What we know:
Layout: H1 10-20, H2 28-33, E1 40-44, E2 47-50, E3 55-58, H3 61-64, H4 73-85, H5 98-110, E4 115-121, H6 124-141, E5 149-153, H7 162-167, H8 171-175, E6 184-187, H9 192-195, H10 201-219, E7 224-229, H11 245-255, E8 259-263, H12 277-281, E9 287-290, E10 302-307, H13 308-314, H14 331-346, H15 349-367, E11 374-380, E12 383-388, H16 403-415, E13 417-418, E14 420-422, E15 425-428, H17 436-456
Parallel strand pairs: 3-13, 5-6, 5-7, 7-8, 8-9
Antiparallel strand pairs: 1-2, 2-3, 4-10, 9-10, 11-12, 12-15, 14-15
Helix pairs in contact: 4-14, 5-14, 10-11, 15-17, 16-17
This protein binds pyridoxal-5'-phosphate (PLP).
The site of pyridoxal-5'-phosphate (PLP) has 16 residues, from α6.
Amino acid sequence: MADVRRNYDIEELGRINTAHHFQPFSDSKAMAEDGGARMITSASGVYLQDGHGNRLLDGMAGLWCVNIGYGHKELAEVAAQQMMELPYYNTFFRTATPPVAELSAKVASLLPDNFNRVFFSNSGSEANDSNIRMVHHYWQTKGQPEKRFIISRDNAYHGSTVASATLGGMSAMHKQGGKLVPSIHHVMEPNIFKFGINKSDEEVGAMAAKALEDKVLELGPDNVAAFIGEPIQGAGGVIVPPANYWPEIQRICDQYDILLICDEVICGFGRTGNWFGFETLGIKPDLITMAKGLSSGYLPISAIAISDKVNDVVVSDGGEFAHGYTYSGHPAACAVALRNIEIIEREGLVEKVRNETGPYAQRLLKGLEDHPLVGYTRGVGMFGAFELVKNKETRERFTPAGKVGITCRDHIMRLGAIIRPCGEAMVFSPPLTIEKAELDELFGLIRQALDATAKDWGVM
Ligand SMILES: Cc1ncc(COP(=O)(O)O)c(C=O)c1O
């Protein structure tokens, strides 16, 4: 494990955390009654260590972000060097810094030839907000301000700010007042497991794409500005769409002159076995959102990439873009992101996932289908999901909804690994550095957790 302070008073830290820390996506009261948060104190490679000395295989790469794994000292050194040279300067009002210029060019070099410009933010949520601003700026500059509606999908995740939470399709977030932007609309997700009973994958793909076309016609094509989608919906449960889905979406966007935004916050930087998910799925986006794997989570940074089609309007005719964040293109974060990309290249992580460990992980995932609790598996590259069911034939779920996933999550954590429930879909998304032996360990623990879950729920 990494060389870190080892004299933590974990009990005291747990107490002050429970008393003073309002945690995201957590029920603070229930957590306090349950003994508080698990304190993670150090990490190396694909393993985390908690304050009680337990080792956990991180099957989620943090929050789908630590693509290069933990413990790369090089990134700490790059950050320290940059902070000593220039800890901060902004990118507003015609100033820039060397790292932001270099990172812009580097990101552009990873993208197709028609992408040459990058705008920086600090999180995936903010980047999606920036994309909304960019889309409106584009259509207004083009003299078509009535093109203002943005269409997204149910069960999508695009972030947690007011606009990005509205953009997402998470019902729990919408219920808490997270659906406040009236110009954002949703259509069904291309979910084979959910909608595919007595239907072929193709039929689900066609139905989900038709939902977009119907919505465009309902709103009026002249009023629709953009469609946004994750190439593969991550937090929705690693929803791998049917093969005919994205080509149809592309046709609809092209036909009705709608900008296509690919949210690559999870899929980007190697997760699907290519640098970006749009390559794996054969999509031609106009705008791209990226975060997470851009810096492997070592420092917060995100970006949107702007195609020449958008650039030629907003840069040639748009005047000043009245948008930006104090930390857009933060020099230390840019320096770290740049080195992170170099590490992905140097270690051949994209090729490793595409040719070696990705197919291996997918075989292990498929192997779970013989388990009585597993009704369906799906995945690409280095992430995937398995659906927990009560009845494999009818796809009947356990009740109450969502609880069996928590049982499975708790068992695997007790056994020494982290994977995550998205409802009844258990998802994994480890660092791209994970080796085959570590995948064997992860899937061995998953099988043990499934057996224990089945016992608890009276199936075995
Ligand atoms: C596809 C996608 N977009 C956007 C976001 C939001 O990113 P952040 O949490 O950095 O704001 C996430 C976060 O999980 C995501 O998965």
